[in-house]
Amino acid sequence: MGKGSLKYASVLDKLKAERERGITIDISLWKFENSKYYVTIIDAPGHRDFIKNMIRGTSQADCAVLIVAAGVGEFEAGISKNGQTRECALLAYTLGVKQLIVAVKKMDFTEPPYSQKRYKEIVQEVSTYIKKISYNPDTVACVPISGWNDDNMLEPSANMPWFKGWKVTRKDGNASGTTLLEALDCILPPTHPIDKPLHLPLQDIYKIGGIGTVPVGRVETGVLKPGMVVTFAPVNVTTEVKSVEMHHEALSEALPGDNVGFNVKFAELKEKIDCRSRKKLEDGPKFLRSGDTAIVDMVPGKPMCVESFSDYPPLGHFAVRDMRQTVAVGVIKAVDKEATGAGKVTKSAQKAQKAK
């Protein structure tokens, strides 16, 4: 009761706590098909208490849709220095999501409703910020919407005749349109290497009665097929893949299509560099200030699965959080790997290996 504007949120917010509190807590997946693509929606939380889940969902995306509320006070809170609009956009870029769409929601809640002035203010503010974190605003489609009234979601809205549509300019081809659906149609599918070894960062692991253990994640490189013998790191457990499914449909193979939070400590500040020119400014700095860029040796508190960004970009990003805020982001230049001993090999893996 009293949550009328959240009516459609319950489609993806399945947890009882999510529906009671009116916020997204865990990630959830949904699929649909349009004229060009088979699309998987990853609904990720924006609340700062659940940023770990937001990272887990965002890291699996090819394109991020940044939802910005146009209501009086709502936008200002999100875009403030410690606001979640800023953090979510920064984490999306850090996690390798280079394509961005900005949807300005609740246009029916502006004063007056569907205010062109308010929309322009928001787009200007958001564009200025995303440019600072390395997105190119010229490649970002901005769409004023009202999910409640279906304004500019699937069809152009009669409530905003002043909106003449969005345009994006990019090397791989320009695009234009009016609705959010058209903006999704213009996403450029990234290329993923299938000739590299299989890397599949785990999102979760489920125990399903009658089926067994079902790890869930996104294939980043290589190919996953039933019958393959795979090894889980860092526990070094080897087993056989019995079946592969996507959206409850069995697959003969899964192609590339990732994220975890860990405690780490800074072992050594090697050098401070200029973030634009990449030139060295100082050797062995004693400390870093907010906004500084540096090369740092980091030692994880426990084993973790990462790769250098140049070899495996999806596994080469990291974010550091402290006191519920993101305090550092970066990419991994090199990894010192420790040799692991012989791990556990399940009976099914032994049988599969003998069969070969």
From TrEMBL:
Keywords: GTP-binding, Nucleotide-binding. Residues 1-198 form the Tr-type G domain. It comes from the Eukaryota. One of its GO terms (molecular function) is GTP binding. Gene3D superfamilies: P-loop containing nucleotide triphosphate hydrolases, Translation factors. SUPFAM superfamilies: EF-Tu/eEF-1alpha/eIF2-gamma C-terminal domain (SSF50465), P-loop containing nucleoside triphosphate hydrolases (SSF52540), Translation proteins (SSF50447). Belongs to the TRAFAC class translation factor GTPase superfamily. Classic translation factor GTPase family. EF-Tu/EF-1A subfamily. This is Tr-type G domain-containing protein. It comes from Canis lupus familiaris.
